[in-house]
Design brief:
This is Oidioi.mRNA.OKI2018_I69.chr2.g6655.t1.cds. Keywords: Coiled coil. By secondary structure, the protein is mostly helical. It contains 6 helices and 5 strands; from the N terminus they run E-E-E-H-H-E-E-H-H-H-H. The strands form 2 sheets. A 3-stranded antiparallel β-sheet has the order 3-2-4, with helices on one face. Strands 1-5 form a two-stranded antiparallel ribbon. A hairpin with a 2-residue loop joins strand 2 and strand 3. Bound molecules: zinc ion (2 copies). One zinc ion (ZN) binds next to loops.
Length: 259
């Protein structure tokens, strides 16, 4: 493992639980417990030979780092002052432009071919991780777009349903309003018809009473008339005129008196 993948202790603010090799004391992105010691990959290989299962046992560092542009000499440019960077943030100079420039200069001036290869592999891994994340994001974004398109469709469908029902309700309310007015007019009409009916009924009762009175009056007259007509018929049976008058009186009795 090259020098460059280890961060100089000058830039470490905390080694954390998994940040430091217990043999070379440097800070690496990954360490592992090998034979009960926390070691970097190259120390583990120096002591115990090639670690075929390194990818399974390695643990990512929890160390924190300063901005890579933190001045180590008075002549150096100021960094951003960050002191809580992850290994990746330190290594990519993502905290500020000066850190990015400083790392770029290191890559160009200070490293051997092997260093360059090691740093290339680290950055390539970040790039691949990010690209994978981006692919996932794009996939999720497309799925979310489709979801929201469908949800909008559903929402619009309900909106249309509500609008239609509102229109139907308006029409029914307008019709109801009309019916209420008609009902009001009908009630007024009923009132006047009831008045007419009452007046007619009173008139009917008046005439009914009058009729009863007249019948009673006829009844009272009928008895003597019948009696007299019998007499008249008996004594003047040859007199056609008188007989006619008597028959007439008898007719009055049958027509009205027993009605
Ligand atoms: Zn080591
Ligand atoms: Zn910085």
């Amino acid at each position: 493992m090259s020098r460059i993948s280890a961060v100089s202790s000058l830039y470490v603010t905390s080694y954390g639980q998994r940040g430091q090799c217990s043999n070379c004391f440097r800070a690496f992105e990954f360490t592992a417990i090998v034979k009960e010691r926390r070691l970097c990959k190259s120390c583990a290989e120096n002591f115990h030979g090639r670690q075929n299962n390194w990818h399974e046992i390695k643990q990512r560092t929890d160390a924190t780092f300063k901005c890579a542009a933190t001045p180590q000499r008075p002549s150096e440019v100021e960094g951003c002052g960050a002191e809580n960077l992850t290994y990746r943030e330190y290594m990519t100079g993502s905290c500020c432009d000066n850190a990015a420039r400083r790392l770029q200069a290191d890559f160009e001036n200070l490293m051997s071919e092997d260093d360059r290869y090691q740093i290339f592999k680290i950055l390539e891994k970040y790039y691949d991780d990010d690209k994978e994340d981006l692919d996932d994001s794009i996939h999720n974004l497309n799925a979310a777009k489709e979801e929201s398109r469908k949800a909008k469709e559903e929402k619009d469908k309900v909106c249309r349903k509500i609008n239609n029902k509102e229109k139907i309700k308006e029409r029914i309310l307008a019709r109801l309003d009309g019916i209420e007015k008609e009902l009001e007019n009908d009630k007024k009409d009923l009132e006047s018809k009831e008045n007419l009916f009452n007046a007619a009924k009173m008139n009917e009762e008046f005439n009914d009473n009058l009729t009863k009175e007249k019948r009673n009056s006829l009844k009272r007259l009928a008895k003597p008339l019948n009696f007299l007509s019998a007499k008249v018929f008996k004594f003047d049976q040859d007199d056609n005129d008188t007989k006619g008058e008597a028959s007439k009186a008898a007719d009055v009795k049958t027509e009205y008196f027993e009605a």
